[in-house]
């Protein structure tokens, strides 16, 4: 169980922070940028949940929890040292990716195929889900860059890739199963 009885520690006052394995890095380190952007994605999910009900809200809550798992995964380098760690690090698993895929397929089954790109908007929930999509895409780009440099769990990158797809399909579902989508009209304002 996590106990937080003191919020500030002053240990980062000089611009560094501790990773999950205790190593200290600069606060603008690519790993910190990656899991910080996952946290930003989660804050966007919280905003979307203000407009969600029923199964959509339940799914977003599940994703919110997954995003904390993902942040814990990304803040802990040294995949090879997992077996020797005093406490097993929390890592994303393929089952979390597969759940997103299953939910995407279920939502997509009710949608008509797209004939144009979708602009962010329609309902308030759809607009917030588009914001979630773009922030999660940025988190994915940072995680991919981090993976090129070193230790990143492949399931973490796959999860982020699938998550932005989930947000896109969910935005269409939130727009009356696509009927309320705002479609791009190329060159409409020339």
TrEMBL record:
<dbReference type="GO" id="GO:0005524">
    <property type="term" value="F:ATP binding"/>
</dbReference>
<comment type="similarity">
    <text>Belongs to the Cob(I)alamin adenosyltransferase family.</text>
</comment>
<keyword id="KW-0808">Transferase</keyword>
<protein>
    <recommendedName>
        <fullName>Corrinoid adenosyltransferase</fullName>
        <ecNumber>2.5.1.17</ecNumber>
    </recommendedName>
</protein>
<dbReference type="InterPro" id="IPR036451">
    <property type="entry name" value="CblAdoTrfase-like_sf"/>
</dbReference>
<dbReference type="Pfam" id="PF01923">
    <property type="entry name" value="Cob_adeno_trans"/>
</dbReference>
<keyword id="KW-0963">Cytoplasm</keyword>
<dbReference type="GO" id="GO:0005737">
    <property type="term" value="C:cytoplasm"/>
</dbReference>
<dbReference type="InterPro" id="IPR029499">
    <property type="entry name" value="PduO-typ"/>
</dbReference>
<comment type="pathway">
    <text>Cofactor biosynthesis; adenosylcobalamin biosynthesis; adenosylcobalamin from cob(II)yrinate a,c-diamide: step 2/7.</text>
</comment>
<dbReference type="GO" id="GO:0009236">
    <property type="term" value="P:cobalamin biosynthetic process"/>
</dbReference>
<keyword id="KW-0547">Nucleotide-binding</keyword>
<dbReference type="GO" id="GO:0008817">
    <property type="term" value="F:corrinoid adenosyltransferase activity"/>
</dbReference>
<keyword id="KW-0067">ATP-binding</keyword>
<feature type="domain" description="Cobalamin adenosyltransferase-like">
    <location>
        <begin position="7"/>
        <end position="173"/>
    </location>
</feature>
<dbReference type="InterPro" id="IPR016030">
    <property type="entry name" value="CblAdoTrfase-like"/>
</dbReference>
<keyword id="KW-0169">Cobalamin biosynthesis</keyword>
């Amino acid at each position: 169980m996590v106990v937080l009885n003191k919020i500030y520690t002053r240990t980062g006052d000089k611009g560094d922070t501790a990773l999950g394995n205790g190593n200290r890095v600069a606060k603008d380190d690519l790993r910190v940028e990656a899991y910080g952007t996952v946290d930003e994605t989660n804050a966007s999910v919280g905003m979307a949940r203000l407009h969600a009900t029923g199964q959509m809200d339940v799914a977003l809550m599940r994703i919110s929890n997954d995003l904390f798992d993902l942040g814990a995964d990304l803040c802990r380098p040294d995949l090879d040292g997992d077996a020797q760690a005093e406490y097993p690090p929390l890592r994303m698993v393929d089952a979390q990716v597969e759940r997103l895929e299953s939910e995407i397929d279920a939502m997509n089954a009710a949608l008509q195929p797209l004939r144009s790109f979708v602009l962010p908007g329609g309902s308030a929930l759809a607009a917030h889900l588009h914001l979630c999509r773009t922030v999660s895409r940025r988190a994915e780009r940072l995680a991919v860059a981090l993976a090129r440099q070193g230790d990143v769990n492949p399931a973490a990158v796959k999860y982020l890739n699938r998550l932005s797809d989930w947000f896109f399909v969910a935005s269409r579902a939130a727009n009356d199963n696509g009927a309320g989508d705002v479609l791009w009209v190329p060159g409409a304002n020339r």
